[in-house]
Automatic annotation (TrEMBL):
Gene: Timp3
InterPro entries xref list: Netrin_domain, TIMP, TIMP-like_OB-fold, TIMP_C, TIMP_CS
Protein name listed in UniProt: Metalloproteinase inhibitor 3
Superkingdom of this protein's organism: Eukaryota
Family named by the database record: Belongs to the protease inhibitor I35 (TIMP) family.
Organism ancestry: Eukaryota, Metazoa, Chordata, Craniata, Vertebrata
Leader sequence residues: 1-16
Domain NTR: from-to ranges: 25-144
Alphabetized Pfam families for the sequence: TIMP
Organism: Loxia curvirostra (Red crossbill)
One Gene Ontology MF term: metal ion binding
PANTHER family listed in its UniProt record: METALLOPROTEASE INHIBITOR, METALLOPROTEINASE INHIBITOR 3
Disulfide bonds: C25-C92, C27-C119, C37-C144, C146-C193, C151-C156, C164-C185
Length: 212
């Protein structure tokens, strides 16, 4: 009986710990432009290999990448060979496929290594919109001094001239919204920031809120 009770206690504790870990990764929605501006490294790359590194309680996955293009981070690390992430998705680890897709990957540099996770912006390259690709090449740079303020409930108003109100959370969430896919918040010659749409189609669902 004692052995059975001991097993039951260990099992329940393990189950509770697993539940806690599974729910541990929570990310705040972030516009791609902010993800770009807040990252040390932004690259387009293809994953050509992976290796589980035996460090930490769950290990770290090291992806070997073939860098196609760098959009941000030239001064820090002009060429990226490895991308590190938590091995467990519950700890915000990213799962990338080997020798299959090209990815946009954003990350931060710690002790000479590039780390990324679920709260960073990463996406299969062919899923990016034309506006997002143009943003990576030029437009997002123009808005790094601007502030994108999320709006969860209407009405929302800018409180300073360098703010753009991000309303995707009214109908979508994070990167999947219309503004995230098609807009950049850039600084104008006059000194204020405003949304720039480029060639994006208007959003017919809540056009007054997202199509200034």
């Amino acid at each position: 009986m004692t052995a059975w009770l001991s097993f039951l206690v260990v099992f329940l504790c393990s189950w509770s710990l697993r539940d806690l870990v599974v729910e541990a990764c929570t990310c705040v929605p972030i516009h791609p432009q902010d993800a770009f501006c807040n990252s040390d490294i932004v690259i387009r790359a293809k994953v050509v290999g992976k290796k589980l590194m035996k460090d930490g309680p769950f290990g770290t996955m090291r992806y070997t990448v073939k860098q196609m293009k760098m959009y941000r981070g030239f001064q820090i690390m002009p060429h990226v060979q490895y991308i590190y992430t938590e091995a467990s998705e519950s700890l915000c680890g990213v799962k990338l496929e080997v020798n299959k897709y090209q990815y946009l990957i954003t990350g931060r540099v710690y002790e000479g290594k590039v780390y990324t996770g679920l709260c960073n912006w990463y996406e299969k390259w062919d899923r990016l919109t034309l506006s997002q690709r143009k943003g990576l090449n030029h437009r997002y740079h123009l808005g790094c001094s601007c502030k994108i303020r999320p709006c969860y409930y209407l009405p929302c108003f800018a409180t300073s001239k360098n703010e753009c109100i991000w309303t995707d959370m009214l109908s979508n969430f994070g990167h999947s919204g219309h503004q995230a896919k098609h807009y950049a918040c850039i600084q104008r010659v006059e000194g204020y920031c405003s949304w720039y749409r480029g060639w994006a189609p208007p959003d017919q669902t809540i056009i007054n809120a997202t199509d200034p």
